[in-house]
Amino acid sequence: MSGLPLLSLAIWLPIVGGLLVLATGDRNAKLVRPLALALAVAGFLVTLPLYIGFDTTTSAMQFTELRWWIPRFSIEYRLGVDGISVLFILLNSFITPLVVLAGWKVIEEKVAQYMAAFLIMSGLMNGIFSALDAVLFYVFFEASLIPMYIIIGVWGGPNRVYAAFKFFLYTLLGSLLMLVALIWLFFQSDFSFNLLDWHALPIPLSAQIYLFLAFLVAFAVKVPMWPVHTWLPDAHVEAPTGGSVVLAAIMLKLGAYGFLRFSLPIAPDASRELAWLMIALSLIAVVYIGFVALVQSDMKKLIAYSSISHMGFVTLGFFIFNTLGVEGALVQMISHGFVSGAMFLCVGVLYDRMHSRKIADYGGVVHTMPKFVAFMVFFAMANSGLPATSGFVGEFMVILGSVQYSFWIGFIAAITLILGAAYNLWMVKRVAFGAVANRHVAELADINTREFVVLGILALCVLGMGLYPLPFTDVMHASVDNLLKHVAVPKF
Amino acid sequence: MEMHPYALWVPLAPLFGAVVAGLFGKAIGRAGAHWITSLGVAVALILSWLIYLDVDAGTVYNAAVYTWASSGGLSFQVGFLIDKLTVTMMLVVSFVSLMVHIYTIGYMAHDEENWPDGSLAGKNSYQRFFAYISLFTFSMLMLVMSNNFLQLFFGWEAVGLVSYLLIGFWSSRPTAVYANLKAFLVNRVGDFGFLLGIGLIAAYCGSLNYNDVFAQGQNLAGLTFPGTDWMLVTVICICLFIGAMGKSAQFPLHVWLPDSMEGPTPISALIHAATMVTAGIFMVSRMSPLFELSDAALSFVIVIGAITAFFMALIAIVQTDIKRVVAYSTLSQLGYMTAALGASAYSAAMFHLATHAFFKAVLFLGAGSVIIAMHHEQDMRKMGGLRKYMPITYLTVLIGALANAGFPPFAGFFSKDSIIEAVHLSTTAGAGFAHALLLAGVFIGGFYSFRLVFFAFHGKERFRDAHAHDGHDGHGHDDHGGHHAVEPKESPWVVTVPLILLAIPSIIAGWVMIGPALFGDYFRASIFIADGHPAIAAMKDGFHGAWGMIVHGLTALPFWLALAGAATAWYLYIVRPDLPAVIKKKSGVLARILEEKYGFDRFNDWFFAGGARLIGRGLWKGGDQTVIDGLAVNGSAKVVGWIASIVRLFQSGHIYQYAFSMIIGVFLLLTFWMNRA
User: Fold this and answer.
1) What is the ipTM of this complex?
2) Are B71 and A429 an interchain contact pair (Cβ–Cβ within 8 Å)?
3) What is this structure's pTM?
4) Helices B84-107 & B279-286, crossing angle to 10 degrees?
5) Smallest Cα–Cα separation from B167: which of B85, B276, B67, B62?
6) Cβ contact (<8 Å) for A474 and B615?
7) Could you tell me which of B264, B151, B164, B155 has the C-alpha nearest to residue B210?
8) Which of B128, B140, B103 is nearest to B14 (CA)?
9) A406: which chain B residues are within 8 Å (Cβ-Cβ)?
C-alpha cells in the first residue's frame, strides 16, 4: 500500500479543485470547462489505486487514515473503505467527469459555479463513503445537500424553487432523527464516535428498534423508499441534466449505503425483527412504483420512478440477509449508477434540442437521430434488466436471493421483469419509433461527438459489467460475508 | 470433459460479423456487410459440422469458458455443453441462418423503398439488417450451446432482443413497432416464470450447471414446495415451461407470434419459424431429466401443446395474408412438438423441430419470394395463378406444403406421424385428449397448407384486376403498390437457391434421420426418459425402417385425414372458388370467432394493457398525488404553516404582551417546580 493518503485525496482534490474553478470565475468560461474536466479526471485517477491496491481477502477497513479533529468530543477524522464502500467512491469519481462533459455546452450561465458545485459535491460524497467517524459522516452527509440544492435551485427548470425546497426539507428533516440517534450512541458507547466501536456495541433490543427507526427515516428518504419518495420525481424533473445524473447515480446510493454501514451492523437484531417491514416496503416500491412509472407522460418523471423501483430491489436485497441478496443489491447500485445516469443523459440530449420532456411531443426520432436511438434502446434495455447488460446482474442475483429466502417474495419481485420492460420500451416506442411526429422532430440533429463519447463510455461500462461482473462481486465477498455473520449474531 | 477446440469460434464468428456490419456498416458498404456476415455464419456452419463429426464419434464436450460472477456459494459460469442434442441444434441454426443470409441479399436489395423519404435510419438499413441476423445467430448458438441455466437465460433474452429489433425493423410503421413491443412483453411474461424456475433450481440445487442439477434430480423429486404438498419439481418444471410457452408461442402466450410477421420475411423464416421459437422445445428436451420426474408437469405440457396445435391451425384457415397463414401453421406445428414433449417423446419433438425448420423456412422464404414478385402485396386474394410465373418458388412451396401437411415421404410425415403415434402410446394424463386434437389438427393442416398453394399459385390471376382499385390493406406495407401492372416474375438466384437448398432436406430429412434420431441411440446421452414413460420404447418395437413406415403410413388415419384436408382445399379453391364466401356467411359466429382469433388480442389489450394503465394511474393520482403529497407532505407543510400563523400572534412586537406572557410563564414554572419539590 502506498503511503499517500488516497482517501483524503479522493475527498479533497475535487473540493479544492472546485474552489479553484470557482476562483477562476464565470467570465473565463473557456478556461473553466477544460480545467473542471481535468480536475474531475484527476479526481477519478486518484481513486483507481483504491481498486488496484484493494485486498479482497479481508473484511477489515483499508486505506485507513486517522487524525484528531475535535478531541474534546472525541471526534476524529477517521477514514477507511471496505468491499462495500470502495466501489461507490470509484463510481462517484467516475461519474463526475461525465457530468462535467454533459454540461459542457448546455450550461452557459454561471459556468464556473456550476462546475464547482459538481466537483465539490463529488468530494463530499467521497467523504460520506469513506468516513468512519459518525460526526464526520454526518457533516459530509448534510453538506452534500447544499451543492445539490444549489444546482436544482439555480440551474433548474421553471418550478425549481418548489422542487429544491421539497428536496432539501425532506432530506434534512429525515436526517435530524439520525442526529439524535448518533448522539445517543455517543453516550452509550462511552463517548466514541467511531463507527467500528458502535458495530461491536451491545444494545438492548428495544433500544435497537428505536435506533433502527431513526436511521430508517433518514435513509429511507434518501433511497428513496415508498412512501417517502415523492420528492424525487419533482427534484429530477426540475434539476438540470447533470444534477439528475448525480442525484440518480450517486446520491440515492447514500441512503442504501447508510443501511449497510449503520442500521444492519449497529442494530442487527432490530434489522431482523423489522425485516418484514423493509421487505414489504421494498416490494411495494418495486411493483407500485413500476405501475406508476408506466403512466408517466414526462420522460424524466418516468425514469425517476423507475429509479425508485430499482432502488426497491436494493433494499429488498439487503433485508433478505443472504449473500446473493446483499451482493446483488450492491451490484444493482453500481449498475443503476451507470444506467440511470445514461437514461437521464439521453433525456437531456432530447431536452437540449426540443426543450420538452413530454413523451407526446416526440415520435419517430429514429429517423433523424439514429445514433442516439441506438443508445437509447440499449440503455432502456439495460434498465429493463436485459442479460449482458449491467442491469441484469443485480436484478438476477436479488431475485435468486429472494427465491432462496421465500419463493413468493421472489415472485413479487420478478414482476419487475414485465413492468420494467413495459414502461421502458413503451416510452422508447412512443419517442423513437413510428413516423416522424412533427416539424420539430424532423429538424433534430443527431448526437455530436461530445455526446457520443459520454454515452459511449457509459454504454461500454454497462456492457462490460454485464458480460463480466466478477471483478465487482469479488471485491465484495469478504465484507458482505462479515456483515452477514455479524447480523446473524444477537447483540443484546 | 473438455472443450472442443472449435467450440468458441462457432458463436464468435457470427458475432464478429454482426459487430463489424453493425458498427462499420457505412464504411464497408452493402457488399461488405453481406459478405462478412455470411462468411461468419458459414464459418459457424463448417465448424459445427466438424464438431458434429467428433460428437458423432461419441465424445461429449463440457467445459467452462470463464466465471461470470460468484456469490453466496454459487459460481456463475459461461460454458459449453456439446452433445448430440446441441450439435443438432447448431447445425440446424447455422444452416438455416446461412440460407437466410443469402436470401436476404435478394430480399432486402431495395430496402430503401421501405423507409420514409429522408429517414436517416433507412440509410444503412441493409447493413443493419445483416448485423441483426448475425447477432441473432450468435445469440441462438449461445443459447443452445450453454451448459448452464444462466447462459441459457442470456441466450434466451438475447434472441428476444434481436427478435424485438427485427420485428420493429421498419420502425416507421405503427403496426411493426406495436408488434415488437407486444412480442417483447409477452415473452417477458414467459421469462418471468422461467427466471423463477431458475431461482428455485439455484436455491435447492446450489448450482446452475446442468450436470450438477440433473445429478440431484432424485433428491429434488423427494421435496415438496414449501407450505404445500405439491412436488417441488413440478413447480420448477411448470415455471420453466412457462418460459417455453412464451418463446415457443404456446397458448395462451401465443399472441405475439402472428403479429411478429410485421418484420421482414427473412426473419420470419429464421427467427419466427425455424430457430428462435423452437428454443422452448429445445429447452424442455434439455431439461428432460427434470421433467421426467413430474407427471403433473408433463400433463400440463401435453395439454397446452395439443390445444395450441389444434386451435391455432383453425385460425390459419381464415387468414388471407400469406405470411399469417404460415405463422399460424407454425404455431400449430410448435403445438405438435410441445405435445410430443408431454408424451416424453423428446426425440420426436427434436426430430420434428429439425424437419419443421427446413420446411417452414421454405414456406416462409417462398412466401417472401411471392411477396417480392407482388411488390410487397401479402394478401392472397390479390394473387392466384402464380405458378406459371414463378415455377421454382411454386415447386419449393409445394414441397413445403406437402411436408407441412405430413404427406409421405416428405420430411414432415415422419416427424409428425411419430408425434401422433407417441402421444397415442403415451400414458401421461391428458394424452387421449391430446391425441384427438392432434388427429383433428392433421386434417386442418392438410387443408390450410393446400389452401395456401391453391389460393396463391393456382386459379384466376387476381393480381391483374387488383391494381385497378389499388386499395392498400390496412397493413401499411410499402408505398410502392403502383407497379402491379407489371407481370410477376421469378425471383433472382440469391432467393431461389436458398429455397432449393432448403427444399432438399424438406424432402429427405425425415427419411434419413428417423432411424437414428428416434429409434437409434443418437440422443441417448442427452435425453433421459423415466421408466414409467413407454411411448418411444413402444414405438421402437413397431418400427421397421423408413420404407416400412411409409407403407404403413399410407394405410393409417393421419394420411387420409391430411389427404381429405387437401382435397377439401382443392374443392373449395379450385373447383368451386365461390363457395368459401358462402360458407363464411353461413357459419356466421364461428367464422367471426376465428377471425377475431378467439378474442385474445382484444382481451389482452383491454384487460392487461388497459388494466395496467388504470392501476398505474390510480396509484399515481390516488396514492402519490392525493394521499402522500396532498395529505402527508403538503398537509404537514400546511400544519406547520398553521402553527406558525398562531405562533406569529405572539411575536407581535408589543413589549407589554411579551412581559405579560413572561409573567404567566414564570408563574406556571414556579407552580410546577414547587409542587414537585
Assistant:
1) 0.91
2) no
3) 0.90
4) 170
5) B276
6) no
7) B151
8) B140
9) 226
